[in-house]
């Protein structure tokens, strides 16, 4: 029986999916795909948008609602339902895929379902994808980290002093979920205007935003889904 | 005139190239590709192997020798020659690509050529690829980093105490070029057998090695091209 495949879609630009991921989607009978409720009863799904641009038939895509609430239990409940539905299709001999934006093993809450299936002895497979920070680096033409430099990825909570300490010890710093540390990032830019700041939203999509001017960033309000790459200019 | 494209090939498994990268290779007139001299006048090129498996015509692949010596100047000389040859083809109206394993902007020495072309005002484009640690995580079915966890990537030089400090402050640690810190990694495993150690070589290729048993790793000699993902078991 085919394993249940966790297919990484990459960061948003459809053609940044891997060939392996695309083939898995083309071969799947049923593809579980998260959507997020927005205002007026509508829903958004960047994952479904990517698949439709790759000509995956809409009738094979099975959307499930993933609430964006702070309560993790709401998301876990949604995932438990996907788990049960995927398992039942798998037992019926169907080829099942579950998709994630970016890479399904890198800050991807859907990995909860992978672990639950694995614990139940169900064959699972994870197909790698491009993380957002890698796509951002390519968009900016950056050498994100080179030679002896290190990379530290921080999902949201940090201070200006910590960023300073990391940069001074030859780390490239990638900060995600910037809305959680806006003031500290602004303070870091004021303290260290000499660092190299590259800010990204929605890389590779029509909504893309790319700002490399620290002064402009100093007053910008960051949304949750945004990303900053900070490097020492003198490396 | 088309930009000179820096195409990331991914970590070694041919189908982990992106669709965008594959199309760029298929459209290129000339693809510069590194090979490494080995014994008896022979050369190896994992990059060329990947492209041949993707049915890129061999006569469009232009191999250049990239010495593995410790002297960085030898590699830079090789890159300077590629720069000149690529520039001349570009001026003749040819579509030129230059490839890199993994991601061309993440610990990729070929980025030197990108920067030199950019400084000369030549249009360049970087196409993202899967870094080896992301492919390794997928191979091992790992959630490399999740929620508030951080990621630190260390290219070779570290100590057991530093790894300990990072793990205890909720970092996942990825160490590359393990041959440079074999003794410290062995010492860390003896000090902290309770951490989760996942060791990888040549992920996705016939030479793949994947070991998740710390005891087995404690005596293993690591080659240069190898990778370890260390996590706290209790996260």
From TrEMBL, chains A, B:
Keywords: Cobalamin biosynthesis, Methyltransferase, S-adenosyl-L-methionine, Transferase. SUPFAM superfamilies: Tetrapyrrole methylase. One of its GO terms (biological process) is methylation. It catalyses: Co-precorrin-2 + S-adenosyl-L-methionine = Co-precorrin-3 + S-adenosyl-L-homocysteine + H(+). Residues 5-211 form the Tetrapyrrole methylase domain. Pfam families: TP_methylase. It is an enzyme of class 2 (transferase). It comes from the Bacteria. Pathway: Cofactor biosynthesis; adenosylcobalamin biosynthesis. Belongs to the precorrin methyltransferase family. This is Cobalt-precorrin-2 C(20)-methyltransferase.
């Amino acid at each position: 029986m085919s394993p249940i495949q966790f297919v990484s879609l990459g960061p948003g630009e459809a053609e940044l999916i891997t060939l392996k991921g695309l083939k898995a989607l083309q071969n799947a009978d049923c593809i579980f795909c998260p959507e997020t409720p927005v205002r007026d009863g509508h829903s958004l799904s960047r994952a479904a948008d990517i698949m439709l641009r790759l000509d995956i038939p809409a009738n094979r895509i099975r959307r499930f609602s993933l609430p964006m609430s702070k309560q993790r239990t709401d998301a876990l409940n949604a995932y438990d339902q996907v788990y049960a539905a995927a398992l039942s299709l798998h037992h019926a001999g169907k080829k099942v895929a579950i998709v994630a934006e970016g890479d399904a093993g890198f800050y991807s809450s859907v990995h909860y379902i992978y672990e639950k299936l694995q614990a139940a002895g169900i064959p699972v497979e994870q197909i790698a994808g491009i993380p957002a920070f890698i796509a951002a680096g390519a968009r900016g033409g950056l050498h994100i980290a080179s030679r002896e430099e290190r990379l530290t990825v921080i999902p949201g909570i940090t201070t200006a002093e910590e960023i300073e300490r990391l940069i001074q010890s030859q780390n490239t710093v990638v900060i995600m979920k910037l809305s959680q540390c806006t003031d500290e990032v602004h303070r870091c830019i004021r303290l260290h205007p000499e660092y190299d700041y590259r800010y990204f939203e929605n890389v590779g999509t029509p909504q893309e935003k790319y700002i490399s001017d620290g002064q402009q960033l100093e007053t910008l309000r960051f949304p949750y889904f945004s990303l900053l790459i900070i490097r020492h200019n003198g490396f």
